[in-house]
Amino acid sequence: MIRKHPETGTWMRCQQEWLRLYRRVRSRTRREDADDHLQNALMSYFERPEGSVQHQDAYITRSAVNSSLNAIRRERQGYVQAADDFETLVNVPDPAPSQEDIYESTQKLAHFHEGCEQLPDRTRQIFLMNRVEKMKYSHIAKSLAISESSVEKHIAKALIFLSTWMDH
Fold first, then answer.
1. ∠ CA 76-81-83 to the nearest 5 degrees?
2. pTM of the model
3. What is the pLDDT of residue 3?
4. In the chain, which ranges are continuous DSSP H helix?
């Protein structure tokens, strides 16, 4: 039994109680930090009013195991912990595009816009209605009072021209 105010002659008994509780908690949690959780549980026990806990060993053991389970949950939820090896953090790839990739994409988009400006007005209009406004050929044909075949020819013409334009 753990006494809240051990007397001077009971140091050895307290040490034995600690080891016994530590082994119990360690066997149930299988974690290296069992002593930390046991210490937290003991602090919780000592902060309670005298006589409020009937089964001290069970209370302390359960508190330590619960503390360990809470630590496991925090780890799984991605709480930040100190890294053992700084190189691990340095070598984590950034999922964001690099500055070079952003610049290259901006240049390609500008080049594409220049190519669209080179298309004949009607072809550009039909191409943008299809690719930007997501209109179907039949809707484009009706809105411009032309045949679907004409729409298909304008789209094909735009695609061929832009494909060649982008290769240069």
1. 120
2. 0.45
3. 52
4. 11-29, 34-47, 56-76, 86-90, 99-118, 121-131, 137-144, 148-167
Query: Do the Cβ atoms of 64 and 18 come closer than 8 Å?
Result: no
145 Ramachandran zone, left/alpha/beta (phi>0; psi -120 to 50): left
Tokens of 97: 């595009």
Q: Render 3-20 in DSSP notation, one character per residue.
A: -SS--GGGHHHHHHHHHH
Q: Is 158 exposed, middle or buried (0-12, 13-18, 19+ CB in 10 A)?
A: buried
Type of residue numbered 50: E
Closest CA relative to residue 126, chosen from 107, 108, 150: 150
Share of the chain above pLDDT 90, in %: 40
